[in-house]
Amino acid sequence: MNVGVTPNQLAAGGPLPGNNSLALEEAKCVAKQNNPPWYPTLQAAELRDSNRTKLYACAQFLGSYTGPNQVYAYASPTQYYTPTLMATRGINDLYVLGGGWCSAVPKPSGQYVAKINPGDLTQIWRTNLINLNATTSPNGVWNYIGGINVLADGSLAVTANSYLYKLIVTCTN
User: Fold this and answer.
1) Which residues touch 158 (CB under 8 Å, ≥6 apart)?
2) Is 85:97 a contact under the CB 8 Å cutoff?
3) For residue 135, how far is the Cα from the chain centroid?
4) What DSSP line would sit under 59-92, residue for residue?
5) Rounded Cα gap, residues 156 and 139, in angstroms
6) Which pLDDT score is estimated for 128?
């Protein structure tokens, strides 16, 4: 008996165990691509590469382009307030940038980066980049969407507020 599991999770065979064979094929394809200065991963940036091509040559879509598709979704057990962008560093490393959406009510306290377990969407760690409730500035602090990407060395490049951060990820767990 699956206590606390939603009908969507059951229908998806979840919490999202997935078919790793397809992900492994995509990862092998991406490893062969030349995309400096970015890390070789399927979802390295919002628009894939520095040329903003939006081309994800190694991604495979198994649904229908002409008919309806069934999509399963469920809520994460962890709250990621105002998540805006995600990036991966391989099939087991998923990162979200959040906390920067100004029009949210209540307003976010500041931006953060969280590493998420792709299988069940639980949070592995979170780094708060700025706490707007504790920061004082004569001109105020700008808090807007920002950006996240994975550099070739595996570190995370993050823009948040008016800052650029380089987060060194030293372990995979």
Assistant:
1) 97, 113, 129, 146, 147, 148, 149, 164, 165, 166, 167
2) yes
3) 26
4) ----S-SSS---------SS--SSEEEEEESSTT
5) 28
6) 92
Whole-number Å distance between alpha carbons of 77 and 124: 12
Two structure tokens written together for 171: 């372990």
Residue 113: CB atoms within 10 Å? 24
Would you say 115 and 76 are in contact if contact means Cβ atoms under 8 Å apart?
no
Mean pLDDT across 46-67: 79
Question: Is the pLDDT score of 130 beyond 50?
Answer: yes
Least confidently predicted of 8-12, 131-135, 145-149: 8-12
CA-nearest of 161, 63, 154, 162 to 115 is 154
In single-letter form, the type of residue at position 117 comes to N
- Selection from 87, 4, 93, 5 nearest residue 47 by Cα: 87
Helix (H, G, I), strand (E, B) or coil at 25: helix
Alpha-carbon gap, residue 140 to 132, rounded angstroms: 9
Given a contact cutoff of 8 angstroms between Cβ atoms, the answer to whether 160 and 145 are in contact is no
- CA distances to 52, 74, 156 from 97, rounded to whole Å, are 19, 19, 11
